[in-house]
Fold each of these.
Amino acid sequence: THFGYKTVAATEKETLVAGVFHSVAAKYDLMNDLMSFGIHRLWKRFTIDCSGVRKGQKVLDLAGGTGDLTAKFSRIVGETGQVVLADINDSMLKVGRDKLRNLGVANNVSYVQANAEALPFPDNHFDVITIGFGLRNVTDKDKALASMFRVLKPGGRLLVLEFSKPESEVIAKLYDLYSFKLLPKMGELVAHDGESYKYLAESIRMHPDQQTLKGMMENAGFDQVDFYNLTQGVVALHRGYKF
Ligand code: SAM
């Protein structure tokens, strides 16, 4: 049946994604720096700047992994604020928690294992939600966006940082060459895991482009949705509000 088919497909993707992130967790930060030439730090900085986050607020860093965004938010919201790092994968959560503890990140951070499609938080709870390089790994993106909308406070905002569609054909060609040829080789060399980095390249190509993702956010209920292309559209930051 249609239903049966969908269920099987979802399970397969979830198992695949779980395998990938269990496998890359230990080398994740190193690979991020290598693969993006350190530029992911700028993309994340830009995300924080666009979030409008303030002292005392509640933030959800969804698919937060090793916690780069969480660490920055934690400093800004301060003692009266709260940051929840949520991720489906316990290996990534563990690496994240250990790293943040070593960095001396404040105890305003909590760690929750959760699936973006069914968030275990009350309605209207967070001022800011970010999902950084996470949405493309989620099986049912519409369900996940609806779940984020539900737990966001009225007046709150969602920021989706994700690979997107390069602005020009030349960049798109170069980028394809890079991600399908070089990236798996780097993954093999550094993390001894070419397969996971092949998945990464494929998942990037499959991910909805800027306009499509904007439409999906609007369908989930978000208002005033806009996006910024970063690094020629290799990455885009989408922002939407709940009113
Ligand atoms: N946000 C971090 C960053 O930007 O460095 C980590 C991004 S990492 C590429 C993607 C993360 O999404 C992984 O830690 C993975 O476990 C998590 N993830 C995948 N599917 C998920 C889901 N359905 N719900 C929550 N997290 C998920």
Amino acid sequence: MPVSTLALNDGTQVPWIAFGTGTALYGKDVEQAVTVAIENGFTHLDGAQMYKNEASSGAAIAASGKLRSELYITTKLQALQPGATPKSALEESLKKLGVDYVDMYLVHIPKQHGSKLKEVWKGMEEAKSAGLTKSIGVSNFTADHLNEILEVATIPPAINQVEAHPYVWKALGPNLAVHKEHNIVTSSYAGLSPLFRGKGGPLDPVTEQIRARLEITRGSPVSEGQVLNKWLKQKGVLVVTTSSKAERIREYLDTENVPDLTAEEIDLIDATGAKLHKRFFVCRS
Ligand code: NDP
């Protein structure tokens, strides 16, 4: 079954779930992991210059036999070297990935650019105008960072990739308001954190209760990870995840086939998550 897509504010479509090559795969050779992800149905690959593995990701892309148009490739701009621009940095990424363009290019971490954020955004627009990327967006941007670049943007960011799970959802309020106003898709990383990084929190019995209900409704296995990813999907969030296991990769993609959470179940996760504010990453300034 093809992976369903989300519409972006620039008229393009993005697969709702991506296989990431950061976190557990950061700095590693990812050829095997990306190959397994593609073979099992992932079409959206989320990488970054900072992960130092674009070349091995590119090797898997080349060996996959997929047409370029069948894959959606994201990379992210790291801190600029002296004399470099977002466009020249992307040219380096394209060489490593072995492709002519990426689908999405994100400013990875706003604090890496200090007072130059507006200039960097104009550089992102230049990379898009040159045809090196179909879409541009940001990551780890607060509402203030977004408002800063929106002052000069002729192209608004299409997505903002941030840590998103029930323990930070309430705190994301100001971000989500700016996203809504400018039609920016919220993308999540660390979405499964309540299950392991934050295990023992108030959400544990709630996700298990909903999992059990969905499993009975479906008549086949449902995991707690699927409950959390479905919660994000039903909020219109683009999920970025990863796994070292083929079985879990298939489970992530199978999330689409899990019955919907009810409005009450979504509210229950929201309310329970709001009881504990817990962030696991420090990429925001
Ligand atoms: P998730 O929160 O979805 O976690 C995925 C990890 O969870 C995998 O390593 C997997 O391990 C493990 N896992 C899944 N289910 C369970 C379970 N039931 N019990 C225990 N462990 C489980 O995503 P990540 O936080 O890892 O981030 C995914 C991607 O997001 C990164 O690779 C990167 O591309 C991107 N990212 C972006 C950031 C940014 O600044 N823009 C920051 C952080 C991440 P296993 O291998 O065992 O399946």
